[in-house]
Design a protein that fits this description.
There is one protein chain. β11, α13 and β12 form a beta-alpha-beta unit. The longest helix has 19 residues. The protein is α/β, with parallel strands linked by helices. It is built from 14 helices and 17 strands. The chain is globular, with a radius of gyration of 20 Å. Bound molecules: magnesium ion.
């Protein structure tokens, strides 16, 4: 089997409302879809959702990268995923989001060849997955209003974006916890917004609020402060922006810098490396979460298969399709009102982009 052509599409999908985190504001998902066609009448699809502040990739840079990456794959066997990914990462070692779209398309294809849903191809079972719902940074009143609305929709866990000043962030959490009551899981994410001292003040000030964990309190490079914070607060610390790949996971765990890892396909370069990160964490007795950027339910379905296939992944933060004004995906995961995710047994990822939507997009083909 050989790769015959690769189609690349640029999709702009507005969010329901602007979404703010400590690093900046996003108004639309500016994503890329990849379709890998073979000489056997089978294709695989993947999606990249570049989050510029985190991955240093944009839709424009990813489209240009996709052109060059696609040329490396034409005529090659798509079933040799490790070899294909080695070629892609050998050429662009620091562009994980666009490479994740190729990785997903290759796994989608392999699942179709094997006639197995991706979770089964990965040797996993089907398990119940539940996602949280994220509240962006805003005025405290608006954040309380959003958190209550998501609780009323049945989400069992609310994730709150923080990373401003310690007094403001403590106030946000206290007001949200009071409005939601003591039962619901409350997670926080500072997205690197604090320094060491601010993180200590903020986290100490919310230690009595039943916080399940706090993601990425300090800068991406600051493993040492993360280690010191972890040793001084009772709220578990989850590395997110600090862990892109398996090498980061190994260093963070070796240092004792965190309690959990947040794996995202857009940071790891896809499923192949995500499996390695999870294996390293599992070997160290550490549980993981799988999160998302601004993906449609195409990439979210790939992520959900990965979560289903590995029981060491304890938490799912796979809510980005709920932010989008349009989710042009056929098949794939479905959500019920309680944030429960159901995966289908269709082969591969089991999701594609609506052909009419694809035709409306700017695109090119590499042959
Ligand atoms: Mg995060």
């Amino acid at each position: 089997m050989k790769i015959k052509s690769i189609e690349v599409y640029k999709a702009d999908i507005p969010l329901e409302e602007p979404f703010r985190i400590s690093l900046g504001e996003i108004k639309a998902a500016k994503n890329i879809f990849i379709k890998i066609n073979t000489d056997m009448n089978l294709f695989g699809m993947g999606e990249a959702s570049p989050f510029p502040f985190i991955v240093s990739e944009t839709q424009a840079s990813d489209a240009a990268a996709a052109h060059d990456l696609a040329r490396l794959l034409i005529g090659k066997d798509p079933r040799e995923i490790e070899n294909r990914l080695r070629e892609l990462t050998g050429y662009l070692p620091h562009s994980p989001t666009i490479i994740s779209a190729f990785d997903m398309a290759l796994y989608d294809l392999l699942g179709k060849i094997a006639n197995l849903p991706l979770y089964a191809l990965l040797g996993g079972g089907k398990r119940t997955l539940v996602t949280d719902r994220t509240v962006g940074i805003n005025t405290p009143d608006k954040m309380v209003e959003d958190a209550v609305a998501f609780k009323e929709r049945g989400f069992p866990a609310i994730k709150v974006k923080l990373g401003t000043t310690a007094p403001e962030d403590i106030d946000r959490i206290r007001r949200i916890r009071k409005a939601l009551g003591p039962e619901i899981s409350l997670r926080t994410d500072a997205n690197q917004g604090w320094d060491y001292v601010t993180a200590l003040q903020a986290l100490k000030g919310m230690e009595d609020q039943g916080i399940q964990y706090c993601e990425q309190p300090v800068a991406v490079w600051d493993f040492e402060s993360m280690r010191r914070i972890s040793s001084q607060v009772t709220i578990p610390i989850m590395a997110d922006e600090s862990v892109f790949d398996d090498h980061d996971a190994y260093k963070l765990i070796s240092m004792g810098a965190c309690d959990y890892l947040n794996i995202k396909l857009a940071k790891s370069g896809g499923i192949y490396v995500a499996l390695k990160i999870n294996a390293i964490a599992e070997a160290a007795g550490m549980r993981c979460m799988v999160g998302c950027m601004n993906e449609t339910s195409l990439a979210l379905t790939a992520a959900a298969h990965f979560v289903s296939a590995r029981t060491n992944i304890q938490f799912a933060d796979l809510d980005s399709a709920d932010f989008l004004q349009e989710n042009p995906v056929v098949g794939g995961i479905t959500y019920d009102e309680g944030g429960k995710i159901t995966i289908s047994d269709a082969p591969g990822i089991g999701a594609t982009i609506d052909p009419a939507f694809l035709r409306s997009l700017e695109s090119f083909v590499v042959k």
